[in-house]
């Protein structure tokens, strides 16, 4: 397998990177090939893997939903590390150590959300999608992308019928999709969510967010008041007319 070390990237729904310049500078200093991908990079992948959803992607109003789809398709196509634009770097060596897990045969390394942020039983997983390591061609990533697109397509139908209809981006296309697709549904109950699906049990490593070599919300100055997806989804439709 071609080494994925250094293939680190993010997604930004704008050609102007001024608002994420600090984030970009920090990660590019550590990984010289670091790149921020945009819509123009994602649409050809949609055309390749799910062409009927190209227009759906273009009509999404919330950048977070676009980013959810983008990271899955880019990781499936390219492999490497996807990182959200608010994450700061703790340790370059720590990132390289996780990359080596992929070189040793794993297909994906996922992060279990910090339990101080989301308290839950010790035997319950909740994967985040702001940090994902993966080898190119990891089928589960494409499955997640297609499921998220199907969820979004269903919600677009609701909006066309009834206008603004309650939705939650994290449930439609975000971390909840990743979590549900990685776990064996036979074991997902209120008390037990720890069984990774059997066809991927030996191909995936789970690490707690508390121990990853990056930290959330270091670069948050790009956020505008009232524009976070969790606020916008309460009053805005997810799709343009």
Helix-strand makeup class: alpha/beta
Q: How many distinct folded domains?
A: 1
Give me the number of helical elements. 9
The arrangement of helices and strands along the chain is EHEHHHEEHEEHHHEEH
Number of strands: 8
Multimeric organization: single chain
Can you list the strand order of the major beta sheet?
A: 2-1-3-6-5-7
Task: Characterise the protein shown here.
It is a single chain. The protein has 241 residues and is α/β, with parallel strands linked by helices. It has a single domain (8-232), classed as Spore Coat Polysaccharide Biosynthesis Protein SpsA, Chain A (Alpha-Beta Complex). The protein is built from nine helices and eight strands. It has helices at residues 21-30, 39-49, 54-58, 63-78, 92-103, 139-162, 169-172, 175-182, 229-232; strands spanning 8-11, 35-37, 80-83, 88-89, 108-112, 127-134, 204-208, 214-215. α2 (39-49) packs across α4 (63-78), α4 (63-78) runs antiparallel to α6 and α6 crosses α8.
């Amino acid at each position: 397998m071609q080494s994925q070390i250094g293939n680190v990237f993010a997604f930004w729904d704008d050609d102007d990177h001024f608002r994420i310049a600090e984030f970009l500078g920090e990660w590019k200093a550590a990984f010289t090939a670091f790149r921020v991908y945009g819509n123009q990079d994602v649409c050809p992948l949609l055309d390749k893997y799910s062409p009927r959803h190209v227009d759906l992607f273009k009509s999404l109003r919330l950048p977070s939903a676009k980013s959810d789809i983008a990271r899955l398709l880019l990781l499936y196509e390219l492999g490497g590390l996807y990182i959200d634009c608010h994450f700061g770097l703790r340790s370059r060596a720590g990132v390289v150590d996780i990359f080596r897990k992929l070189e040793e045969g794993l297909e994906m390394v996922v992060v279990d959300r910090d339990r101080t942020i989301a308290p839950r039983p010790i035997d319950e997983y909740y994967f985040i999608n702001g940090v994902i390591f993966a080898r190119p061609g990891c089928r589960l990533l494409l499955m997640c992308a297609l499921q998220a697109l199907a969820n979004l397509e269903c919600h677009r139908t609701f909006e066309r019928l009834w206008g603004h209809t309650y939705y939650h981006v994290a449930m439609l296309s975000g971390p909840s999709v990743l979590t549900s697709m990685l776990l064996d549904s036979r074991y997902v109950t209120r008390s037990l969510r720890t069984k990774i699906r059997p066809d991927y049990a030996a191909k995936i490593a789970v690490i707690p967010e508390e121990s990853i070599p990056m930290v959330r919300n270091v670069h948050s100055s790009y956020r505008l008041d009232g524009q976070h997806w969790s606020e916008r989804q309460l009053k805005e439709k997810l799709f343009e007319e």
